[in-house]
Amino acid sequence: MRLSNNQAWTLFFVGLGYLGAAIFYSYLIGIDAQTQIACPVCPHILRFASIPPIHQFVSRVLVLGTVNALFFLLIGWLLISLVRFIRRSTAN
Predict the structure, then answer these.
(1) Inter-helix orientation angle 5-24/53-91, to 10°
(2) Spatial distance between the Cα atoms of 39 and 51, rounded to a whole number of angstroms
(3) Buried b vs exposed e over 50-87: b needs ≥16 C-beta within 10 Å?
(4) Separation between Cα atoms, residue 90 and residue 85, nearest integer Å
(5) Burial class (CB in 10 A: 0-12, 13-18, 19+), 27
(6) Quick one: which of 34, 54, 52 has its CA closest to 43?
(7) How far apart are CA 38 and CA 9, in angstroms?
């Protein structure tokens, strides 16, 4: 099975969204790589001592990573559509 160009871009943007959330919340698993640009929609949430850090990491990446993936998907496709529109406009 071969992915079309549009499907590949979609998977790239979704993967980028989840990766950004994982980087943002990586402090929960002992890696200090937190940067707001990786996950612009991820809020700073206090850590609860009663919940294990790995559970907090997984749940935040799944929930907020989905929101971040949708954000990256929207912005990415807006940029791709804009570039395609400009190329079509200047080709004529």
Answers:
(1) 140
(2) 23
(3) eeeeeebbbebbeebbeebbebbbeebeeeeeeeeeee
(4) 9
(5) middle
(6) 34
(7) 18
> CA 36 to CA 71: how far, in whole Å?
14
pLDDT digits (tens, 9 = 90+) for 33-87: 877 788 888 888 777 778 888 898 999 999 999 999 999 999 999 999 999 999 9
**Location of structure tokens 């200047």:** 90
d(CA 16, CA 68): 9
| Centroid of chain to Cα 60 | 12
